[in-house]
Design brief:
alpha/beta, TIM Barrel, 3-stranded parallel sheet, globular, binds 3-phosphoglyceric acid
C-alpha cells in the first residue's frame, strides 16, 4: 500500500497554480524582485530559482520578503544541505534534477516538499518506494519526450510529472495535453539577454504569450 510521504495535495496545489514553471538562473540578486514581478505581471505566480548561481539564495530571500504572491521553488537542489539552505531562504518547494537516497529521505514528510527528478521507470519505482508520486521528468526531450511520458502512464498511473529540459513555447502545449503531465518547466521565459538588459516588459510579454498558447 503506497503511503504519501511527499504531501501530494500540497505539491499539486503548487504545480497546478500555473501550467508553466519558469526555471531561472539569477546572476545578481539586485534583479531578483524585478524579474519575479515581471513574471507575476505576465500572469505566472511560481518561479523555480536554480542554485546554479551564487545569487540564488539571496534572490529567494528578497522575493519572499517583497512578493508574497509569488510561490518560490528552489531548483537544482543536489543534496540535503542545499535543501535546508533553500528552506532557510524561503523556498516553499524544492526541486531536484535527479535523485539520491539522502535527498529523498530529507524530503519525506518535510513541511517544504520535494519534487524529485526522474528519467526512467526504475527511478519512478524508487520515488514510489519513498512515498512520492509527483516528480520532475528531466531532461524531458533527451530522455524520451512525449513517447516516454506516454509509456510511463501504463505501469505508473498514479504518478504525475513536470517535464523540463528542452521545453519551449512551441512544444509546451503538447506536453500539457498528456494526462500524466501536471505542468511544464523551462528557461525560455527568462532569456539571459533580456535579464542582462533589465527588459522586464519583454519577459512579462513572453509569460503572457506562453500562457495564452498553453491555455488555448
Ligand atoms: C531545468 O533545470 O529544469 C532545466 O535546465 C531547464 O531546461 P531548459 O533550459 O531546457 O528549459
Amino acid at each position: 500500500m503506497w503511503n504519501d510521504r511527499q504531501n501530494v495535495p500540497l505539491v499539486d496545489s503548487f504545480c497546478t497554480q500555473s501550467p508553466i514553471i519558469p526555471v531561472v538562473a539569477i546572476e545578481s540578486s539586485s534583479q531578483a524582485v524585478a524579474l519575479a514581478q515581471a513574471l507575476l505581471d505576465g500572469g505566472i505566480n511560481i518561479i523555480e530559482i536554480t542554485l546554479r548561481t551564487e545569487a540564488a539564495l539571496d534572490s529567494m530571500q528578497l522575493i519572499a520578503q517583497s512578493l508574497p504572491d509569488m510561490t518560490i521553488a528552489a531548483g537544482t537542489v543536489l543534496n540535503p544541505h542545499q535543501y535546508q539552505q533553500s528552506i532557510d531562504a524561503g523556498a516553499q518547494l524544492v526541486i531536484s534534477p535527479g535523485i539520491t537516497t539522502d535527498l529523498l529521505i530529507k524530503g519525506e514528510n518535510n513541511a517544504v516538499p520535494l519534487l524529485p527528478g526522474v528519467s526512467s521507470a526504475s527511478e519512478v519505482m524508487t520515488i514510489l518506494d519513498h512515498g512520492y508520486a509527483r516528480c520532475k521528468f528531466f531532461p524531458a526531450q533527451a530522455a524520451g519526450s512525449f513517447a516516454m511520458l506516454n509509456a510511463l502512464k501504463g505501469p505508473f498511473e498514479q504518478v504525475k510529472f513536470c517535464p523540463t529540459g528542452g521545453i519551449t513555447q512551441e512544444n509546451a502545449k503538447q506536453f500539457l495535453a498528456l494526462s500524466n503531465v501536471m505542468c511544464v518547466g523551462g528557461s525560455w521565459l527568462s532569456p539571459k539577454a533580456l535579464i542582462n538588459q533589465n527588459d522586464w516588459q519583454q519577459i512579462s510579454q513572453i509569460a503572457k504569450d506562453s500562457l495564452e498558447i498553453c491555455q488555448q
